[in-house]
Amino acid sequence: MNKKKEIVIGVTGGISAYKACELVRSLARKGYGVTVLMSAEAKHFVGPLTFRTLSGRPVISDMFSEDVAWNPCHVAVAEKADIVVVVPATAHTIAKLAQGQCDDIISCVVMATKAKVIVCPAMNDNMYAHPAMRENMKKIAGFGYTIIEPIKGELACGKVGLGHLAGINTILKAIEKSLK
Question: Which residues on adjacent β-strands are paired with residue 117?
């Protein structure tokens, strides 16, 4: 059992959102405290009830959710986190993180935290190869964020290319390494 390290998982709106379910389940089984944040788009792929069941905690998808402390929700979550993991990280979310935009619960928590941040991109191979994406990836790496690069695999469009979410075991190992 771990000393109840607090892991925040930010789930964004890509088809790989369903894979975050297994990550949350694995982390909770290992004894970590897991708080799931969902973008509005993520809820089109997986329901909050699934993550609530797997984590044993309420899911936060609204920046203005009521919190028991006086702190705004995104600040309270950011301060409690030992690590924040964005999985899957869409092109849109990575662009927001690179620009420091804070317009949803995930981008606000990432901006407000002093914890380590891991970003796990997943998207179409053409999007992943785009020069703007490459620049955004360099920029967030420059912020000290760890990037778990996608792998070559089947994409939502049906073709095989670089943009498939890294394996859950790879992500899990990176989280545990970062927590040491």
Answer: 84
Residue 119 CB partners (closer than 8 Å, separation 6+)? 85, 86, 89, 94, 97, 140, 145, 146, 147, 148
Q: Looking at the whole model, is its pTM more than 0.90?
A: yes
Give CA–CA dist 134/150, Å, rounded.
13
Over residues 43-68, the mean pLDDT reads 86
Q: Over the chain, what is the mean pLDDT?
A: 91
Is a pLDDT exceeding 70 seen at residue 69? no
Judge whether 18 lies within some domain: yes
Query: Does 1 fall in a domain?
Result: no
**Which of the residues 21, 108, 120, 157 is marked catalytic?**
157
Provide Rg for the chain, Cα atoms. Answer: 15
Kindly report, residue by residue over 17-31, the tens digit of the pLDDT: 999 999 999 999 999
Residue 45 lies in a domain: yes
Q: What domain range includes position 105?
A: 6-178
73 has catalytic annotation: no
What is the tally of structural domains in the chain? 1
d(Cα 164, Cα 155) in Å, to the nearest integer?
Answer: 6
CB within 8 A of 90, min separation 6: which ones?
12, 13, 14, 41, 121, 122, 123
Per-residue model confidence as pLDDT tens digits over 75-95: 778 878 899 999 999 999 999
